[in-house]
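Sat 14:20. Reprocessing the chain from the morning session after the first attempt stalled halfway. Input below, unchanged.
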Amino acid sequence: MSRVFTSQSTGAGVYVFSDDHCPPHVHARHRGDGWIARVRFSFVISAVELLSVAPLRNSPLQRTVNRLLDDIEAELPACRRTWWATRQTTCLANQWAVVPAPGTIELLPEPKANAKQIAEATYDPEQERLRVTFEDGTTLDASTRP
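Finished this time. Tokens:
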């Protein structure tokens, strides 16, 4: 388990576990209130998404969840850095994507015209850069900075 940061607005500790699985996510644990939230993030976009809260009987108020999501989004580079250091994957392999402009990538839920399948993707946490290699051998370097 690697601590990423402590959410200043909720008091929850935010962690990446060494045995976690894709998609990339963090666990936010509030010891005092007894809840754990799982929040998904991406190496492509800066949006974050609540996956789950457990146990349900201890669920935080929606405004607390919103503050937690804001804090995680603000600390996204640290979340990505810790996930990469712990898991060594961006979880992008085999996904379909298009390149709408140089240095940008858009993930697709299914293949469509002009789509390429991702063979592998690596992350450079120091430069906050994503390097994607597609099945056709082409590559894309993209900044993950907002």
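The chain is about 15% helix and 35% strand.
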